[in-house]
């Protein structure tokens, strides 16, 4: 249990959303996970909207195991459906479907992602400090609800970063970098390198 809290605490301290909290607040485990989720939801939603339709089949290399841009978002939706359903203690509404291969258009993938976020919105909204350590069934195991939801944030951020490489290869600036650049132009906050490059 202590090991889990140390790992989750480390993850959340490293989260950029944690750093954006106003000074002097006490930020609980539930609040921190909810903030991190809101940030990655915004990033992924803006990222899928920003990539032109024609680039949804783009892969940054010839390796057959690489997903194309669109498949990354089908993968995120699959994962979010499974994990958020587990956190809610309900059946996966996407069970038996593989959105990586079934949803192939920007419109279809955008809907799949939005639907998975709708389920996750409920899971994160229902997270409290009182129920964060309750065990929920995920696959053959039982895992703390907060660990399941921390996994959603971690995996979704990983996929956002991966998709950002695809965007850069197409000459596009990822949404989080674009927002950071806009903040810098308005005179707000320190940046992370050279936004917009």
What string gives the helices and strands in order?
HHHHHHEEHH
Question: Looking at the structure, what is the overall shape?
Answer: flat
CATH class: Mainly Alpha
* Counted beta strands: 2
Structural class: mainly alpha
With helices defined by DSSP (H or I, 4 residues minimum), what is the helix count? 8
Under the CATH scheme, the architecture is Up-down Bundle
List segments where confidence is low: pLDDT < 50 over at least 5 consecutive residues. Answer: 9-14
Number of domains: 1
- Percent range for β-strand residues: under 5%
Describe the largest sheet. 2 strands, antiparallel
Distance between the termini: 42 Å
Global Rg = 17 Å
**CATH fourth-tier homologous superfamily:** dinb family like domain
**What is the helix fraction of residues, given as a range?**
55-70%
Give the rounded overall mean pLDDT.
88
- CATH fold node name: Four Helix Bundle (Hemerythrin (Met), subunit A)
């Amino acid at each position: 249990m202590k090991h889990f809290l140390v790992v989750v605490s480390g993850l959340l301290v490293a989260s950029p959303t944690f750093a954006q909290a106003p000074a002097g607040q006490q930020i609980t485990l539930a609040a921190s996970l909810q903030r991190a989720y809101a940030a990655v939801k915004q990033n992924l939603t803006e990222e899928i909207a920003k990539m032109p339709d024609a680039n949804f089949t783009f892969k940054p290399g010839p390796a057959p195991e690489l997903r194309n841009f669109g498949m990354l978002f089908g993968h995120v939706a699959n994962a979010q459906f499974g994990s958020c359903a587990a956190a809610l203690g309900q059946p996966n509404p996407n069970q038996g479907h593989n959105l990586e291969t079934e949803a192939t258009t920007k419109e279809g993938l955008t809907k799949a992602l939005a639907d998975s976020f709708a389920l996750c919105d409920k899971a994160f909204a229902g997270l409290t400090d009182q129920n964060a350590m309750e065990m929920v069934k995920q696959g053959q195991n039982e895992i703390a609800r907060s660990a399941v939801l921390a996994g959603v944030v971690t995996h979704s951020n990983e996929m956002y970063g991966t998709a950002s490489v695809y965007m850069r290869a197409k000459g596009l600036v990822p949404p989080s970098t674009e927002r950071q650049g806009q903040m810098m132009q308005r005179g707000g906050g320190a940046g992370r390198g050279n936004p917009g490059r």
